[in-house]
Structure formats: C-alpha cells, structure tokens
Amino acid sequence: MADNLPSEFDVIVIGTGLPESIIAAACSRSGLRVLHVDSRNYYGGNWASFSFSGILSWLKEYQENSDIVNESPTWQEQILENEEAIALSRKDKTIQHVEVFCYASQDLHEDVEEAGALQKNHASVISGNPTEAAHSAYQPSEDESLCTVSCEMPTEQTPSSDQETALEINDVEVTGEKEKRYDDKTHAKSASEEETSENVPIAEDTVLQPKKNRITYSQIIKEGRRFNIDLVSKLLYSRGLLIDLLIKSNVSRYAEFKNITRILAFREGRVEQVPCSRADVFNSKQLTMVEKRMLMKFLTFCMEYEKHPDEYKAYEEITFSEYLKTQKLTPNLQYFVLHSIAMTSETASNTVDGLKATKNFLHCLGRYGNTPFLFPLYGQGELPQCFCRMCAVFGGIYCLRHSVQCLVVDKESRKCKAIIDQFGQRIISKHFLVEDSYFSENTCSHVQYRQISRSVLITDRSVLKTDSDQQISILTVPGEEPGTFAVRVIELCPSTMTCMKGTYLVHLTCTSSKTAREDLEPVVQKLFTPYTETEIENEEVEKPRLLWALYFNMRDSSDISRNSYNDLPSNVYVCSGPDCGLGNDNAVKQAERLFQLICPNEDFCPPPPNPEDIIIDGDSLQSETSEFSVIPEANSETPKESTSLGNPEETSQ
Amino acid sequence: MHGRLKVKTSEEQAEAKRLEREQKLKLYQSATQTVFQKRQAGELDESVLELTSQILGANPDFATLWNCRREVLQRLEAQKSPEELAALVKTELGFLESCLRVNPKSYGTWHHRCWLLGRLPEPNWARELELCARFLEVDERNFHCWDYRRFVATQAAVPPAEELAFTDSLITRNFSNYSSWHYRSCLLPQLHPQPDTGPQGRLPEDVLLKELELVQNAFFTDPNDQSAWFYHRWLLGRADPQDALRCLHVSRDEACLTVSFSRPVLVGSGTETLLLMVDESPLAVEWRTPDGRTRPSHVWLCDLPAASLNDQLPQHTFHVIWTAGEAQKECVLLKGRQEGWCRDSATDAQLFRCELSVEKSTVLQSELESCKELQELEPENKWCLLTIILLMRALDPLLYEKETLQYFQTLKAVDPMRAAYLDDLRSKFLLENSVLKMEYAEVRVLHLGHKDLTVLCHLEQLLLVTHLDLSHNRLRALPPALAALRCLEVLQANDNAIESLDGVTSLPRLQELSLCNNRLRQPAVLQPLAACPRLVLLHLQGNPLCHAVGASEHLAELLPAVNSILT
C-alpha cells in the first residue's frame, strides 16, 4: 500500500508523538491533506505504551545493536541539480542506559508466552546503540552492562537462578556475561528454590490468584497483555490545556480516564497521604484540628493569592520554602505544600512560582474528583492515538513502519518541497513537521539535550495500603542533596488497565543527573524491597516487593530553540519529544503554536460539526462521510469517568 | 479550502431547530389535550399511560398527569391478573427512573414512586435503596432523594446503624451536606435511646463526644460551612423545657388570679384545660389573656368571685391544675394581705437555657475551648463567634456576661447583615441576666436602663415586678406582652424610640408612666393607656406629638382619668 501513496500533501508529519498527533489532527480538521508517518511499528514514539511483551521487544531493539543494512533504494540519485537533501536519521538515539532486573521467581516453564500475543513485526530500521551516547553528558561506566530479560531466551535461565540476578545480555561493547546483583544481598537461596517449585502449579491459574500468592515471572509473561507500560509517565491536570483541548475537539470521546485517587508524601521514612482537598482535610486523622484550619486557610489564600498582594509581596525575593516558614504552618504542613502540592523543590522556586503552582494544583481540584489529576485508561500512549484517529476521521493518511530518508530542499527558495520515503517515492508537500529524534547528527550537532531518568517497576502491593486496593497515587520524593532532582513516583493499580491483577505498575521520573539507575535506585530502595522468599513468611513486610524493574534514560528535547538545529528550511518545523514535567501543557502549547504557523487565523481543533448539520451532496461525498454518521452529537461532554447514573433498564430488571 | 466540510450556517441551524421545536410543541399539546379528554370521559385505560408517559418523559413536573396515571393504575389493578400487574409495575418503575434522570428533583416523580411502592404487595426495598444510593452518588445533596431514602429505610426497617454508616460515607465525601447531618440527628437518638427519665432526644456522652469530634473536624476545615454548625448546635441540644406552671399570683384588689406558663398556651374549651380549686373545691372561671386577645400566651388570668377572697378565713388556697401539661401549682392568700404568689425560682437551671441545653458542663467547657481556639485562627467567623456566645450562655450567663457582650460587638462588626437579629438576641440575653440578678436580690424593682435593648422578651417572667426602668434603650415599641406585668406601678421608658404603646393597657396598678424623648407622633397612639385605671401621671416631654396644635386638649380628652400629663 505504502508505495501507492498520493504524491502530494499539504502537510507531512513525521513521528506520532503527542505534539505531532495533535498538529496532524488540527491540520486535518482544518481541511489540509495530511500524511502522518512513523518509522516504528507502533504509534506514539517515546509517548507510547507497551504490553509486557511489547516492552521486551522494545528493549530488545535497543540492545540489539546490529546496524541494519539499508536495502532501500538510494535517494541520492533522485536529488536534482537545484535541490539538496537533509538526510534523516535511521537510528533512534533517544533511549540510553537501559537496564532490566527481574526479581519474580522464574519457573520451570520455558515455553510461556503472552496469552493471545500477536507476533509483532519490528520495523527493521530501528536499531539502537545505547552506549554510543554522542550527545549525552553521561557515559555509562565501563563495568555497567546492559541487562535485559527476554522471554525468548529461556535457555539461559536456570530454575535455581538467584531471583535478584538480572539476566545478562550481551552488549556490543561490554562482552562476557556478568551477573548484576541488587545491592541488598541477603537472600537465602534455599528458600527461593522452595518457592519456585511451589509456584509451578499455581502458575497455571493466573487470574484467580488469591492475594497471598506470589506473582511469578511466567505469570507476568502470560498476563502480559494486561500491561500497558508507558515510556513517559505523565498525568493530565484536570484544568490543563490537554483536557481543554480534548473536550473542545471532542477527541475525549475516544478515551476514558480515571481520577488519581490520592496524593502521597514520603516523610521521615514513611509514606503518608497528603490531605489536599476539603474532603481530605476533613477526613484526615493525622492532622490536628488547628492544622486543618491552618492548611485550609493557607490553601484558600493560594486559590486567589493575586488578590492579596500584601500577603506575599514582601517575600517575593525568597524561596517558596522560606516563605512557607513565615506562614502559620507546622513543618508537616510546609512539607506537604512544598513537595506534594506545589511540587517544587526546596531551593529552586521563589514565592510567586510556588504560589502559582499551588494555585494551579488547587484550581484543578474537584473538577473530576478529589485530586487534580486524571490518568488515561490503558496508558498515556492512548492519547496520541486518539488525536491520530481524529486526524484520520477527517481524511489524514497514516503509515506506520514507514521511514523517510530525506527532506528535499529547493536550493533557490531554501524551502523544503518534498520527502523521499523508504521506497524512494518522492512526496511533495507544503509543510513538514519532524519530531526531533528523526533528525540526523548533522542537523542537531549543536543541540544540547537534557535527559530524563525513568524507571518502571512491577510491584506486588501499594506503597500505602488502604481499604481499597484500587488506588492511583502520585508521590514526590524530594532530592536529598542539593543539586539532585525530586523524583516523581506514580503508582498505577490494575483498574487503570495498565497492569495485571495483583500487581501495581510504578513509574519513577526525574531530570537526569546521572544514569537512570543511579538517579532512581536510591528512591526505589527506600520505597520497595526486592522480591525475596524469606520475607514472604512474614506478613508484616511493610514495603511492597519488586517483581521487575526497568531503568532507562530518555532524551528531553523540549524547550530547544529552533535555531539550534542546523540549516532548517522555514517550512520544516521541529516537534520535541516528551518533557520531564508532570502535565502535558508543553505538548499542547507547541502543537498550537506550530499549527498557527501553518494555518494562521484558523481555529485550533474546533469541535466537530453536528452530524445533522453536515451538508452532503453526492458529488463531494467522500470516504469519511461514513465515519461521520457514527459521530454522536457534538457536545462538550467532559472526559469524566463514566460513573453517571445507570440506565433505568439496569435497575428495573 | 479543499476537503473542508460543508456545514449549515447558523441561520439554517436556527431555522431547523425552530421547526423541530414547533413540531415538538404540537405533539405535546395534542397529547395533553387527548389525555384530558379521556380523563373527562372516564376512559382510564392503558392508552392514557402511554400518552402521559410521552409527556412526562419530557417534562416530569406535570403533576396533574401523575394523578391521571395513579387513577389509571388504580383502575387497572382491579382488572388485571397478578402477572399482568407485575409487568405493569415493572414498566412503571423503569419509567419513573427515566423521569428521575430527566429531573432528579421532581416532586411529582418521587411522590409517584412512593405511592407506587406503598401499594405493592412485595416491594423490593433493596433495589430502592440502591436507587437512592446511585442518585445520591451523583448529587449528594438532593433532598428529594434523601426524603425518599428515609421513606424507604423506614418501610424496609433498615437498621439505623446501616443508615448511619451511609451518612458517614456521604459526609466523608463532602461534609457540606445538611441532609446527611440532619439524618444523623434522626438516627442517633434511635440508636441510643435514653432511659425514660432522661431528657428526650439526647445522646449518651461517649456518642456525643464522637459526634462533636466529627463536627469539629468539619468546622475547623471549613468554618464557613453552616451545615456543620447547625449540627453542632443540635448536638449541644435545644432542650424542650418541661411543661410547668411558672408562677401564680392572686390579687385581692383586682379580684384576679394570674397564671404564667412555661410555654405559650391557648386555654379554653377544646384546647388546654386549666382547673382552679379554691380552698379545695373546684371553681368555674373564665380565663383570658392580659391583652384580651385569644391566642397562645404565656400568661392567663381570671376574675375571682368575692366569696373566694373574703377575709373571714385565715387564708385562701388557690390550686391550679394544668391537665395537659401534667403540672400544678398552689398559692396562698393570707388574711390581711393584698396579694399572694408562688413562683419557681429563676435560678433554676432550665429557665433560660433553651438555646443550648443541659449537657454536662465539662463537655460544654471543652467545646468552648475548641471554639475559642478556632476563633483565634478565624477572628471574623460569625458561626464561631455565635457558638461561643451560646456556649457561654449555657455554661454561666452571669459569669460570662461581659465577655459575651464583647463577642456580640465583634460579631455585629463582621456580620452587619444580621445586626438587628444580633441586637435582639443580645437584648434577650441581657434581659435574662437581669431577671436572674433580680431573683438573687429578691426585689420587685427591675432596672433595664442603658442596656441598648432593642426588644423586650421574657416579660412573662416579670409578673411580680412593680417598678420597671427601660430608659435609654433603643426600644421602638412597648409590646402587647407587657400587659402581663400585672403588678407594675411605675414604668419608665424615657429616651427610647418608642412609637407604639400596645402593651401598656389594662395594667391594673400602673400609676406613673414616663415616656420622655420618644417618637410618639399622634395623641391617638396613647389610646391603650385609657384602659389603665390607676394611671395618674404621664410624662410625654420631648415627643413629636408635644408640638402638635391642641395636643394637650386632645390628650386630656383621650385620657380623662390621668391627673397630670406633662408635655
């Protein structure tokens, strides 16, 4: 099909991350002809979510370092005399320092496969050389191997292998097999053997496991489709730009959301719930009456702090944490406000920034529930796809596993006029949107990228147990030493449709100082304990146990000036990958700004018209009209979790 | 632009919408008409159900149509087999729920559901509770649904503990829920019935303390939310004072017996019965109110025949029995005395503590401390200030008098909208304190001057007062209740803003009345004074009516018995 693509478009979008997908949708909605391509075999780029086997394949791509021979027809000969080419990169260099550890018991079954898993075809163009971090300030040290676990390599696993042993994988530069031990080496081997043999029959019946039973690795593999593991860990602010856009454009109908149920803090070695809404404060057992009043009073002030300049003007020059000390707040409350509500650091932000952040948090409270955040069911990776769907509904054309070899620039006008794709087809367009990772080293040799440290954990229980086991929590762990960054922890329960029953999926994120593992492991150790057999006997184990852990660094290409890229024609626009922030405002702002450059004076993603208002005359009947007939009435239905009144049929039965 | 959708313009849309609405209106009207015709013709069959459901589905507030449906259902009940009827009920319940979803606050719909459930032989109450829970999930303050829930819970005999847990869950979600707090106040006394001897509707102390903690959590979190404060006030209790006869007074001169009740009552045939025994034999008398109006009053009096008052016996005993209130009182008129009385001491705990009651003072004390703590944090919170005042009153009105007045001042400043209410409340408390002090001193003279009073209350407590000074206040009237002061001889009410004197009438012993510097405009307002037989001295200086031409003549004509009228 791909070689039959039309040869002319108005906009070509390369990369299916969130900003690209929003722009594609907006352009398509405004009537432009859009071609949206991604060289990968999945949507979302670094915004994607994967099933468990999906993430294993993703890992494999980054550790398989073979520079795949390009069989594509050469494009050089297609470049005419009055043209020059900007070659695009064939490798994704945005992910580095990938490390995987498995703590769950490996059982004897060697042929475990994800139930119902489809054999995925991986795009051949993707290859990763994780250690070749040309633009990273942080080189991995020599003795660090890149480790990964793969279900396709069972022969390397022995039943008695130590649980905390990460399974080794050959790396191009680091040869030989090395055992990577978790720092805490206190686990008895005999116990693990016992456990392993016990687990064999249990593994047959995975879904109906009583809580007490341990989750084994083969269960995770088998139930792998229950997982939707996000590469970026973000939440939607209830009044953030993305929610507004989802509602306005009616894209919200393609997705479902759940409210984050609680905000947590980690203080003095303990995880506790932060009371932030009125109901939380009322119900809190940890605050005294007077603290309740002080907290509510301060938060109420923050809601409209601009109206009371005399209350904070004098403190504008100092940090927010210093300012909090001047307020009538106990240390406990200061901590909550600083780290869990404003989510700023001790040193970084001044009073006004802190007040602004607090206000924003509070402003979002109560729109959909008692916390300010929403999480998309099935993972953050749903969101780019929702916008792609809208783009397609309005006629956009989609090609995954379709790479672009180069941009063709007209020498005289210095404008880009076409692309040449992997099949050598030249496709003309007026505007070109390219996601940062697609540019070659030549283009971004001067760009200074920051890095995001990420970790994904599968655990067996929540960091803070309550009556309900379906909690979605966000926890901020402030950086310990000056200069280190706060770590954001988001814990997802199975009802978010991102992990299997009996497990929790935990995402850790921070701005990188070192490799992801170096940055995040201290926090992981504070909150979790590696899965061991001995502790299982003791039901009083406080910390959740780790079943599986993944660390990686991701390039943060946000906030990079267009001028940093070399020789970009004016009609080539750069979309950045995910940023480190919690919300999605950056992506939406960027999308809207770029859209305005392409379509000045056009409304950005206006609501789709009412189906009955669409005039269909035979002549202009297009393929998408059938799509329209299924669009329900346009209304500003909010993306609220569908907890509305049940229908009468239900109860009258 | 290429590929752009063609959509109707806003004019086209508006036109399409208008046509659609016109069509809807036509259908609605014709259906309504048909229903009314059929009803008139007595054709109450299933077609009426069908037609009304079309209309009610769109507008569930059409009460007449619900009545129609009830008539049809009643008729069908007689005609249908049980199976057919069950199917009918099932449809009706489903239909009702869909109407509730159109308007969850429709009186008619909820009422119809009540009616229907009440008629079913085996209603499924569990499902109804579930329905309530779902509607309250969406709007936890829908009082229609709360009403219905209470109905269902009563019918299904849901244990109060379960319902209490339900209110817990809703309060946890959002404590600004008056209905939920109110339901608690109904459920808790059921859950913890007090022994018969104790005050009704009160809670055991451990339960009370738990509730107080809960409600404190609410008002410390949001002191501006009034639902919690109301519940707090309920918890601390408004004791219904027991029915009692407060005072009996018998006067030889006026040949009159006066009775003061603990609450306003209406004495007479067919209402409250009051029996009078004079020297242990019943005496039939005519009871009347001091101001002559037949309506509930604290004070009732009757004329006594000369035989009951003669001086031949060493004493006469007057025994009054209030049958309904199960109360009685006796007083003695000794030979040679002009009057005799018997009254409860105003120092008795119950007399004035009607706002917050008789809980243990330790509980009240600790509540007062919490409120003061909150007040320090929220110096301008009116609910907190008011509660402090009420708590202080309940604890010790005299000890806290000065503090209370300061709080009133603050409260008035922060809540100017309710200044007049607060003035009246303050006046009431001051009057109560004065009465208490008077009691301690055992005098019949009461000084209420310079107190900024705006209203007079508890006048029934002043039955025995002979001298009353109300000068330098902000009174605008001497109210009808003043007529209860049967012993009053001298009344000073200078320097007020008095415009009317309705209460200064038929005061049998009033001799001297001072009304200088008030706002009496017309001589006619002095008309009630004509009914005071002993009034001889009247001070009217500084009133507008003094400047009227011929005022003195007019007054002399109006009050011929008054010796000197000073203008």
From TrEMBL, chain A:
<dbReference type="GO" id="GO:0006612">
    <property type="term" value="P:protein targeting to membrane"/>
</dbReference>
<dbReference type="GO" id="GO:0005634">
    <property type="term" value="C:nucleus"/>
</dbReference>
<dbReference type="GO" id="GO:0005829">
    <property type="term" value="C:cytosol"/>
</dbReference>
<comment type="function">
    <text>Substrate-binding subunit of the Rab geranylgeranyltransferase (GGTase) complex. Binds unprenylated Rab proteins and presents the substrate peptide to the catalytic component B composed of RABGGTA and RABGGTB, and remains bound to it after the geranylgeranyl transfer reaction. The component A is thought to be regenerated by transferring its prenylated Rab back to the donor membrane.</text>
</comment>
<comment type="function">
    <text>Substrate-binding subunit (component A) of the Rab geranylgeranyltransferase (GGTase) complex. Binds unprenylated Rab proteins and presents the substrate peptide to the catalytic component B. The component A is thought to be regenerated by transferring its prenylated Rab back to the donor membrane.</text>
</comment>
<feature type="region of interest" description="Disordered">
    <location>
        <begin position="173"/>
        <end position="199"/>
    </location>
</feature>
<feature type="domain" description="RAE1/2">
    <location>
        <begin position="452"/>
        <end position="580"/>
    </location>
</feature>
<dbReference type="GO" id="GO:0031267">
    <property type="term" value="F:small GTPase binding"/>
</dbReference>
<dbReference type="GO" id="GO:0005096">
    <property type="term" value="F:GTPase activator activity"/>
</dbReference>
<dbReference type="InterPro" id="IPR036188">
    <property type="entry name" value="FAD/NAD-bd_sf"/>
</dbReference>
<dbReference type="GO" id="GO:0005968">
    <property type="term" value="C:Rab-protein geranylgeranyltransferase complex"/>
</dbReference>
<dbReference type="GO" id="GO:0006886">
    <property type="term" value="P:intracellular protein transport"/>
</dbReference>
<feature type="compositionally biased region" description="Basic and acidic residues">
    <location>
        <begin position="175"/>
        <end position="192"/>
    </location>
</feature>
<dbReference type="GO" id="GO:0016192">
    <property type="term" value="P:vesicle-mediated transport"/>
</dbReference>
<feature type="region of interest" description="Disordered">
    <location>
        <begin position="614"/>
        <end position="653"/>
    </location>
</feature>
<protein>
    <recommendedName>
        <fullName>Rab proteins geranylgeranyltransferase component A</fullName>
    </recommendedName>
</protein>
<keyword id="KW-0343">GTPase activation</keyword>
<feature type="compositionally biased region" description="Polar residues">
    <location>
        <begin position="635"/>
        <end position="653"/>
    </location>
</feature>
<dbReference type="Pfam" id="PF22603">
    <property type="entry name" value="RAE1_2_domI_C"/>
</dbReference>
<comment type="similarity">
    <text>Belongs to the Rab GDI family.</text>
</comment>
<dbReference type="InterPro" id="IPR054420">
    <property type="entry name" value="RAE1_2_domI_C"/>
</dbReference>
<dbReference type="InterPro" id="IPR001738">
    <property type="entry name" value="Rab_escort"/>
</dbReference>
Automatic annotation (TrEMBL), chain B:
<dbReference type="Pfam" id="PF07711">
    <property type="entry name" value="RabGGT_insert"/>
</dbReference>
<dbReference type="InterPro" id="IPR002088">
    <property type="entry name" value="Prenyl_trans_a"/>
</dbReference>
<dbReference type="InterPro" id="IPR003591">
    <property type="entry name" value="Leu-rich_rpt_typical-subtyp"/>
</dbReference>
<keyword id="KW-0808">Transferase</keyword>
<dbReference type="InterPro" id="IPR032675">
    <property type="entry name" value="LRR_dom_sf"/>
</dbReference>
<dbReference type="GO" id="GO:0004663">
    <property type="term" value="F:Rab geranylgeranyltransferase activity"/>
</dbReference>
<dbReference type="GO" id="GO:0008270">
    <property type="term" value="F:zinc ion binding"/>
</dbReference>
<keyword id="KW-0637">Prenyltransferase</keyword>
<protein>
    <recommendedName>
        <fullName>Geranylgeranyl transferase type-2 subunit alpha</fullName>
        <ecNumber>2.5.1.60</ecNumber>
    </recommendedName>
</protein>
<dbReference type="GO" id="GO:0097354">
    <property type="term" value="P:prenylation"/>
</dbReference>
<dbReference type="Pfam" id="PF01239">
    <property type="entry name" value="PPTA"/>
</dbReference>
<keyword id="KW-0597">Phosphoprotein</keyword>
<comment type="function">
    <text>Catalyzes the transfer of a geranyl-geranyl moiety from geranyl-geranyl pyrophosphate to cysteines occuring in specific C-terminal amino acid sequences.</text>
</comment>
<keyword id="KW-0433">Leucine-rich repeat</keyword>
<comment type="function">
    <text>Catalyzes the transfer of a geranylgeranyl moiety from geranylgeranyl diphosphate to both cysteines of Rab proteins with the C-terminal sequence -XXCC, -XCXC and -CCXX, such as RAB1A, RAB3A, RAB5A and RAB7A.</text>
</comment>
<dbReference type="Pfam" id="PF00560">
    <property type="entry name" value="LRR_1"/>
</dbReference>
<dbReference type="InterPro" id="IPR009087">
    <property type="entry name" value="RabGGT_asu_insert-domain"/>
</dbReference>
<dbReference type="GO" id="GO:0005968">
    <property type="term" value="C:Rab-protein geranylgeranyltransferase complex"/>
</dbReference>
<dbReference type="InterPro" id="IPR036254">
    <property type="entry name" value="RabGGT_asu_insert-dom_sf"/>
</dbReference>
<comment type="similarity">
    <text>Belongs to the protein prenyltransferase subunit alpha family.</text>
</comment>
<dbReference type="InterPro" id="IPR001611">
    <property type="entry name" value="Leu-rich_rpt"/>
</dbReference>
<keyword id="KW-0677">Repeat</keyword>
